[in-house]
Specification:
Number of strands: 0
Number of helices: 3
Distance between the termini: 131 Å
Order of helices and strands: HHH
Strand content: under 5%
Largest sheet: none
Length: 122
């Protein structure tokens, strides 16, 4: 009878151990499942951020290309204007006498401006 009793106790002990291990395994599986779910959510968030950054990079590249084209056009215009200036300096232009204003004309303009200012103050 002692062997039967010991065998039964051993079987009960083994069953308790298996039950405890099964609970522990189920808990671990549940914990792992929760972690996997959180990691999937984090991955989705990071993928969305990445897509947003890729779109922003594409827009900035377009702006850079546009600005580069604008700079090229302005540099070309500067070059053309420098050529014009050089050509103009090379010409013998004698229009300075036609453009000059006499001191009397300047005095008249100053008096007229002062009169207008006086009228505006009234």
């Amino acid at each position: 009878m002692h062997q039967k009793y010991c065998g039964c106790l051993l079987l009960c002990y083994f069953c308790m151990k298996v039950e405890t291990m099964t609970d522990r395994i189920n808990t671990l599986i549940k914990t792992i499942g929760e972690k996997v779910t959180r990691m999937k959510d984090q991955l989705s968030v990071e993928q969305a951020k990445n897509e947003s950054f890729q779109n922003e990079i594409a827009q900035l590249k377009e702006q850079l290309t546009s600005k580069s084209n604008e700079v090229e056009k302005l540099e070309s215009k500067i070059s053309d204007l420098k050529s014009e200036i050089g050509a103009t300096k090379g010409q013998d232009v004698d229009g300075s006498n036609e453009m000059s204003i006499s001191d009397e004309q300047i005095d008249e303009l100053v008096k007229e401006i002062e009169y207008c200012i006086g009228q505006l103050k009234k």
